[in-house]
Design a protein that fits this description.
Number of strands: 0
Largest sheet: none
Strand content: under 5%
Low-confidence stretches: 148-154
Number of helices: 6
Length: 154
C-alpha cells in the first residue's frame, strides 16, 4: 500500500467524519423515537422499565436502519429484497444487539442499582452505545463486497 493508492490520512478520514455526523443526526432522531416510546410504555402504560427499554430500542433500531440506509450510507445501497433483508439482519446483529443488550444492562445498573431516573439513565445508555454502533454499522451492516475490497487494499 502506498500513499498514492489511498491518499493522505486526512483525505481518507474526511468522508468518515461526514458519515459519522450523519450517523449521529440519525441517531439523534432515533433517540427521540426511543425516548418517546419509552415514556409512553413506562409512564402511560406502566410497563416494567426493562421491558419498555427493550421495546423502545427495537423500534428505534428499525427506524435507524431505514434512515441509515437512505441517508448515512446511500452509496452502499442494498438492492433487492434479499440484500435489504441481509442488511437488516446484519444491522440487528450488530447495532440492534449492542443497543438492546447495552441499554437493558446499563438501565439495570443506572436505574436498578444507582437509582438514576429512568429517562436520564436511558439518555446515558444511548450515548454509551453510540460509538460502538457506528463502527459496527460502517464495517459490517452497511459494507458491500466492493467497499470491503477497496478498504482492504488501502
Amino acid at each position: 500500500m502506498s500513499s498514492a493508492d489511498c491518499g493522505s490520512l486526512a483525505l481518507r478520514l474526511a468522508p468518515l467524519g461526514r458519515r459519522f455526523l450523519k450517523f449521529n443526526l440519525v441517531g439523534a432522531l432515533g433517540t427521540a423515537v426511543q425516548l418517546g416510546i419509552l415514556v409512553l410504555l413506562k409512564s402511560a402504560l406502566h410497563m416494567n422499565y426493562l421491558v419498555a427499554t427493550a421495546l423502545a430500542v427495537e423500534i428505534s433500531v428499525l427506524h435507524n436502519f431505514v434512515w441509515h440506509e437512505r441517508y448515512t450510507w446511500p452509496d452502499r445501497a442494498l438492492v433487492g429484497w434479499r440484500a435489504r433483508l441481509r442488511g437488516l439482519a446484519a444491522f440487528h446483529l450488530t447495532n440492534g444487539l449492542v443497543s438492546i443488550v447495552g441499554n437493558v444492562l446499563l438501565m439495570r445498573l443506572f436505574v436498578g442499582q444507582l437509582r438514576i431516573p429512568y429517562f436520564v439513565a436511558n439518555v446515558m445508555a444511548i450515548a454509551t452505545c453510540g460509538l460502538a454502533n457506528f463502527v459496527l454499522a460502517d464495517r459490517i451492516a452497511f459494507t458491500t463486497e466492493a467497499q470491503s475490497h477497496r478498504e482492504t487494499n488501502c
